[in-house]
Write a structure and sequence with these properties.
By secondary structure, this protein is mainly alpha-helical. It contains 25 helices and no strands. It folds into 2 domains: 203 residues, no CATH class; 227 residues. The protein is 78% helix and 0% strand.
């Protein structure tokens, strides 16, 4: 007969002592045979190498200092933009909390400890603290790196910029994680937290383009510019972040077990997919975590019958895009706007933002290539068509070019709208062409290469060859996407030299377009290349 635990059983300190003992024993078995000295040495050498690389690369950039009027403009407008970033991060945390995050416990903890006669809050605080420490620590490191890059453009010593960047990033992530813990506690209906977060995002965005008062997150955004203009109001955001974190830790016992079990299963599969370098599985599992479902009613109308008959692959791909959920449409638009704003920062003289623009374009390209990825997910179905698979894959590239072009147009409108000019429109129009093509090409390399055939080939390779191959396969697609923004650097250099930047960008775009053409040829004949290699080595290609 099933009996519920009494309050005295739950409050019994010996019960939690038993839980702590079980966790300690499990950790000892997991870490048995590990050489702590060797692990500490690896952490030390990795941290030292990362620090040296950051310092060297930040000094290697060598961007010019901003002029006094540019500094004043950045200090005046920067907090609002950073406030929008903070609001988006908080929204991500709230949505994660509504689905059982940010904690991802182990399955035995969920199935046994959360159902045991032990205070659920005590069981959940240890993994919650682990998430908080790791998240805030990583955010502080990333913020310190951002501060060191800001020091290359703004006047003043480097230490204040590094410190303000680290504090800003740590406070932002603490706000997000605290909001996630409170949302997961279910003390207040999650829909109320989600609506409040969306209202904060809308307020922060409207404050940038209208004359309404600045949002509360703008105060935290001003923290990033403390070396130029100290605003004590930003300290209130630190206090709020601490309060949210403490309240979340105190109330986390209200976490729903069903959501925790679902998240634990998905995160476990996600970690395994990451270790296997299976990006497609990572994307699908992340969408399951986000609870994305196709729309019942499409966004887009179907193509006219004559066009659909002539281009059936494009018609089917656009029909797939029309079923995208609203959150995916919003995500790809936000990613495109982020890439456009980073490209504007590159044009203004901040060279490291080239990497941000390229990576954002790469992520947008991965979302846009979903129809091709679904085609690759069913190789038997594709092989049954009276069409070469490579030719079908090439036809699938038309849809992502259209989608990413629309996203680039929206992002360019936002970036140019900050300070409209005829030159800005011309530069954006020319820069969009190589950026769109390389974003699609980089994502296409990842999607087409991420197949069972490639992984089987890798398993047969010698370790000396498989290691470099894996490294190239991981880094090459994002590099291709970053190359799409290189013409922007050429145009900036031409403008500084007093020459026509648009003509210089057009000339620099030609090699990028040729690179895109070569990648399309590789997609078309990739299967033929594999078959030739298989015949040469005497094994089957399928």
């Amino acid at each position: 007969m099933l009996t519920l635990p009494s309050d005295s059983d739950i409050a019994d300190p010996t019960a939690f002592a038993a839980v702590a003992s079980l966790r300690s024993a499990r950790n000892r078995r997991r870490l048995a045979g590990k050489e702590w000295g060797e692990l500490a040495y690896r952490v030390y050498t990795t941290s030292l190498a990362a620090l040296v690389a950051v310092v060297f690369l930040s000094g290697l950039v060598g961007d010019n200092r901003l002029q006094p009027d540019e500094v004043d403009s950045a200090v005046r407008l920067g907090p609002a933009w950073m406030g929008l970033l903070v609001a988006l991060v908080v929204l991500i945390g709230v949505r994660s909390g509504s689905r059982g995050g940010p904690i991802a416990m182990e399955r035995p903890d969920v199935q046994h400890l959360l159902l045991a006669p032990v205070d659920r809050g005590q069981v959940l605080r240890r993994p919650s603290l682990s998430v908080l420490f790791s998240g805030i620590g990583i955010a502080a490191l990333v913020g310190a790196l951002a501060g060191s890059l800001l020091d290359q453009r703004f006047p003043g010593p480097a230490v204040p910029w590094v410190a303000s960047g680290a504090l800003f990033a740590a406070t932002t992530v603490a706000l997000s994680l605290g909001a996630a813990l409170l949302t997961a506690s279910r003390r207040i209906p999650p829909i109320a937290w989600v609506l409040a977060a969306w209202l904060l995002v809308a307020w922060s965005a409207a404050a940038i383009f209208t004359d309404i008062p600045a949002s509360p997150t703008s105060a935290l955004g001003s923290m990033l510019f403390w070396p130029q203009a100290f605003t004590p109001l930003a300290l209130g955001a630190v206090v709020i972040a601490v309060v949210l974190v403490l309240a979340g830790l105190a109330l986390i016992g209200g976490l729903v077990i069903e959501l925790a079990l679902r998240r634990t299963a998905l995160v476990g599969q996600l970690r395994f997919a990451v270790t296997q370098q299976d990006l497609r599985a990572v994307v699908l599992l992340r969408r399951q975590l986000a609870a994305e479902r196709p729309r019942g009613r499409p966004w887009l109308p179907r193509l006219p019958r004559p066009i659909a008959d002539r281009a059936p692959v494009l018609a089917r791909d656009l029909a797939s895009v029309g079923r995208w959920p609203a959150r995916r449409v919003l995500r790809i638009l936000v990613t495109g706007i982020a890439a456009a704003l980073a490209a504007r920062g590159v044009w203004s003289g901040t060279t490291p933002l080239l990497l941000v623009a390229g990576l954002a374009g790469y992520v947008a390209g991965l979302d846009a290539l979903e129809p091709l990825a679904q085609e690759i997910d069913h190789p038997g179905l594709a092989g049954s068509f009276p069409e070469v698979r490579g030719a079908t894959a090439v036809r699938h590239l038309a849809e992502p070019i259209i989608v990413v072009s629309v996203v680039a147009a929206v992002g360019a409108a936002v970036a140019v709208g900050i300070d409209p000019s005829a030159l800005g429109l011309r530069v954006a129009a020319v820069a969009a062409v190589p950026a769109v093509l390389c974003a699609v090409a980089g994502a296409g390399i990842t999607v087409v290469s991420d197949q069972v055939l490639d992984r089987a080939d890798a398993s047969l390779m010698q370790p000396e060859v498989a290691g470099p191959r894996l490294l190239i396969r991981t880094l090459w697609p994002p590099i291709v996407s970053v190359l799409g923004f290189v013409p922007l650097l050429i145009g900036r250099s031409a403008a500084l030299a007093g020459r026509d930047p648009v003509g210089a960008m057009a000339a620099a775009s030609l090699p990028v377009v040729i690179l895109f053409g070569l990648i399309v040829v590789w997609v078309r004949f990739r299967d033929d290349i594999h078959e030739s290699m298989a015949e040469a080595t005497g094994r089957s290609a399928t």
